[in-house]
Records
---
Amino acid sequence: MSRTGKKAAATARKARIDEMRRAQQVRDRRNRVITVTLSTVIVAGLVGFGAYAIDKGNDKDEQQTAAAKKPVRGEKSWDAKKLGRNHVTKAVTYKMNPPVGGDHNQAWMTCDGTVYTKAIPNENAVHSLEHGAVWVTYNGKAGAADVAKLGEKVAKTPYSLMSPVDDQAGPIMLSAWGHQLTVDKASDPRVGQFFTKYVQGVQTPEPGAACTNGLEGS
C-alpha cells in the first residue's frame, strides 16, 4: 500500500475511533442522566413514603388518643379526684355497687386474670382497680353461658378479675377506677371495648403496680 493509502486508512481508523468514543460518551451521559433521574425518583419515593408513614403514624396516635378520651357507650364515670385513696383497716361504705374507687384495704385482690367463684371484699377489689385492673361482676340474672364466657376472657387477661356480687343492679357489670359499665350479655361488643380502654388504662392511679401476690379468695 502506498504512503498515501496508509495515511488515508489511518485517518479513517482514527475517524471511526473518534466516532466510537463520541458514541460512548453519549451513552455514558445518557446513563448518568437515567441513573440520576432514577435516584431522584427513588429518593423522592422514599421521602414521600416516609412522610406518609409518619402521617399515618401520627393519625394512628391521634386516633388512639381520641379513643382513650372517648367513653364507652353507656358507661358511668366518677371524678377520680373525689375518690379517696387512703389505706384503711375497717369496712368502707361506698356510694356505688360495685365500687369503682375510694379508700381501700392495703392488700389488693390478686388480679392476674383471676376468676373468683365466691364474693370477695370490696375494699381489696378496689385496691386492684387502683392498680389498673378491670373487675367483672355478675349476679343471678346473668346466664350461665355468659358467666362462663366472661370467665374465659378474664382468665386470658392479666390485670383483670371476676367475682359474683349478688346485690348489684345489673346482671353483668364491669368496673375500672372511676368507670363502670352494665351489660346484659357477654357478647356485647362494649365488653371488649371496656377491657381495651381500661385494663392498665390512662385512668389507672398506680400504673404498673402488681396484680400478682395479692389476697386470694376463699
---
Amino acid sequence: MKHRIVVLGAGYAGAYVAGNLARRLSPADTEITVVNAEPDFVERLRLHQLATGQKLGALQLADAFAGTGIQLRLARVTAVDPGRRVVTVADSDGGGELGYDTLVYALGSRGDNSGLPGAAEYAFDISSRPSALRLRERLNSLGERGDVVIIGDGLTGIETAAEIAESRPDLSVTLIARGTLGARLSTGARDHLRRTFDRLGVRVLEHTTAESVEAERVLCADGAVLAADATVWTAGFAVDPIAAEAGLEVTDNGRIVVDRTMRSVSHPEVYAVGDAAYAVADNGRPLPMSCASAGDTGRQAIVAIIGRLTGREVRPTKLLYYGNHISLGRRDGIVQMVDDEGVAKPKYTGGRTAARVKSGIVRMSLWATAHPTFGLPKRKHRVTAVHAASTTKARV
C-alpha cells in the first residue's frame, strides 16, 4: 500500500510543503492529502488591505494543486489521534477520519484576545479572512469622523494603522503601544515610522495598556478613555489547541516542539511547520511567527521527509530570521534587517523602495503557491521498502 502523507492547513507553509512533496515523491508509493477549511489560498500578508476594502485575487487551491496528484479535502480539522494515526475532520457531509503515516501539521495561528475583557465581544482582528471581512464591513459602515482604535504595536498593528489611515483619511486612527513605538527597529527606522504616522494622521499612545474594550470605547490602565467606533486587536496570536489536546509535546502557548528537522520531539511521524512549530533557529533563538519562518521550516521539513522516506541523508537547511518588511500603506514602507542576535542593524530602507520590496515579496509568495512544482527536478524519488507499507488505519 502507499505511504499516506496528510498535510493539515494550506497556508504559506502547508501549501508549499504539499506541492514540493508531490513533485519529488513518486505517486506509485505515496498519496498526499491536504486538509483545508477554505477552497482558496488566503494571503495573510495582505489581510490588512482586505480589511480596508482592497480587492485581493483569490487563488483556488484546486487550481494550484492541479496536475500534482494532491487530494484536496475541504474540511475543518477537529482532532488528531497520534496513537491511531488518524485525523478527525468536519465538513458539510458530516466529516470523518483520515488515516496517515506521515502528518504535516501546518494549521498556523489566529488572533488571541482572550486576556482582554470585552475584546472577544467588541474587538475585530485580521488574523483570518472572515475576521478581516467583518472589519471591512464595520469600516464601510462608518461615516466621516469615525474613531478607530488599534490595540498592539507589533508589525500587524503598525501595518493595519497605516493602511486604514491612508485609505480612510476621514477617520481618526489611534494606535495603543505598550512600549515605545517601533522599539525593535533601528533609530532611523523608528524615526521614519513616526514621520509616516504623522503624515497619515495616526495618533500614537506609547507606554499605554488597554484594560478593557466596550461597544464604543476602550478603557486604558492609566484612566484614559478612547472613543472607538471600531476597535482592532493585533496584540497577540495563538495556535489552535488541537496539538496539545492530541498529546503532542507543545510549548506553553501550544506550539509543537520540534527537532532540527521539524519533527515532533514526542511523535516522530508528525512534522510541524509555520506558526504552529516551535523551532530554534541557527542563532539559538526561536523562529518568530512569520511568513519567512513558514518558508524556512517548510523547506527543512520537505528535505527531512523525503530523506527519511527514501533512505537518503537528512541534511540541515538554513534556519535564520533576516529581518522585517513592513508596509506603511501602498506607497511607503520599511525594510529592517537584523543581525545574528535578532537585533536591528543600523541601516534600513524606507519609502517607495521599501514598499516595492514588500509588494514584490507578497507577489513572489503568491506565485510560488500557485506554481508549487516550478523549477523542481522532474525525477520522482521512490519510497524505500521499509516505509512503503501503510499501517491499516481508518480512512474516509
---
Amino acid sequence: MTQRTTPAAQVLETDLEEIRTHARGSLDRLAGMRVLMTGGAGFLGYEMLHVLATIGEGDGRAPVQLTVYDNMLRGRKAWLEQLGARPHVQVVNHDITKPLPADAPAFDYIVHAASIASPIFYRQYPIETIDANVNGVRHLLDHMRARQEKNPVRGMLFFSSSEIYGDPDPSSIPTKEDYRGLVSCTGPRACYDESKRLGETLCVNFARQYGCHVTIARPFNNYGPGLSIHDRRLLPDVARDIFEGRDIVQLSDGTATRTFCYIADAVSGYLKVLTHGEAGEPYNIGTERPEISVRDFVNKAAAIGAEQHGWRGNVVQQSSDDRHYLTDNPNRRCPDIGKARTRLGYEPYVGLDEGLKRALAWYSGNRE
C-alpha cells in the first residue's frame, strides 16, 4: 500500500527542492565538508539541516559530515532525531555558552544559530540570551582562531538580527547594512538587540585582527515551517488560534508594518552568505515587498485559514496583560537587500500569499 504524503510533508519537500535549486552553488561547495550547526533544534535549523543532511542522497555529491549542537532546552525534536539517525549526522546535547567539547572535530564550516529569538521568551531569559549571543560566538571564534594554522575553518555564519537596527528613522527605510541603528541599551528587548550587536562586533574584529572568515546574516521577519506553533510570535499565534477553532486575538492596533520573508527563500540566502559572503561583512536577508501592516497580515492569514482549513472565527483586538509587550517594538521594518542581491545572487521568490498557504498547511500537521 502506498503511504499517503501529508500536506505538511509536501510543503517541506517543496521548500527543500526550491532551496536546492536556488542555493545550488552553496550546496556544491558544502558537499563532503564537515559542518557544525549550533542551535540546530530551532526554527532556522529546521529546513537548513534537512537540506544539509540530504546532500548526497541521489544527487552525486559527497554527503556533509554534519554535527548539530543544541542544549535541548525545549525538548528533543522528533525531526532532529530522525535526521540524527543518518550515519553522517551527529546530534550532540551541548550548551554553546560553554566551551566546545575537547573532542570536537575539525569543522570546515560553522553556523551559529543558538539563541532565544522570540521576544516573549528572551525577556524571560535575558542573561541566557546574552550568553548565547556573546559568549557562544566567542567560543566559536576562539575555535576558529585556534585552527588557523592547522585544519582552518573555511567559513562561519553568525545569525544576527534585523533588531540590531532598532526602530529606524523613516529616512532609513528600506534599511541598508550601513545604518547604525536606533536601539535602547536598557529596554526590555535590549538583552537580544544589544547582544546581537556585540556578537557582530566580535565577528568583525576577529575577521580583521585574526583573518577569521566569519560572515553575518541579518534576518528580517522569517516565517514558515520549523517555527513552533508555541513560539509566541505573530504567525504561530495566529495559526494556533485557527487550528484551535477560536477567535484570532491581535494584541496591538495592527498599524506597525513589516516585510515577511518565507523561510525557504531565507535559507537559500543564508547558505549563500555562509559559502560566498565576504569576511566580516553583514548581509540583510529578507524581502523588500510587500511592506504590509500587521493587521493586513493577520487578515490574510485568517482568510486562508477560513478558505483552506475551515476556520470560522473573528479577528479581535485586545491589549496584552504584559505592559512591556510592545515597548521598543519597531514601527516599520523593511530591508534593503541590494547588497545580498548584487554580491551573492540572492533573490526571494515565494510571494506572501503562497508563503502563508504553505505555512498554514505545515502547521496543520505540526500542532504540538
